[in-house]
Amino acid sequence: MQKIPDNVVRFFQDQGFVIVSTIGSRGYPHSACKDIIKINRNGTVYLLDLYLKDTFRNLQRNRNISLTAVDEHRFKGYCLKGKAKLFAKKGLEPGVKKAWEARINSRLTQRILKNLHGEKGHLRHPELLLPRPEYMIVVEVEEVVDLTPQQLK
Asked: Which of 22, 70, 95, 141 could bridge to 43 as Cys pair (CB 3.0-4.6 Å)?
């Protein structure tokens, strides 16, 4: 497992979501949006998945995974590559469930504030329509890739 620098941990914590990439049954990349619930400097990332679909099936076959986040305004981003472990919904600690609820409430609050400021967004509050998490993905990071172009570092 590779340690994650503090600035990278903060960067991922500040993101609304990350792009999770896995390998599909026919060998093609599969990408999906997921929320990070917790990220540790020691190289462990915790995600909750709301659906038992492609990401779940792909990780059952092949544990390789990458998590990508970018900030277009700051023109920077990172990719975390590693191996995933799957944990059933029954095994989720109450703290993990609370963290997910706090994350959803934060996203909902941000959407309401943007709407009040006149920023057009989704007509509904999609966070309220999301199902409960089905399982947890724990990623042991093996590589941290800085996506920022060299001339901008």
From this structure: 141
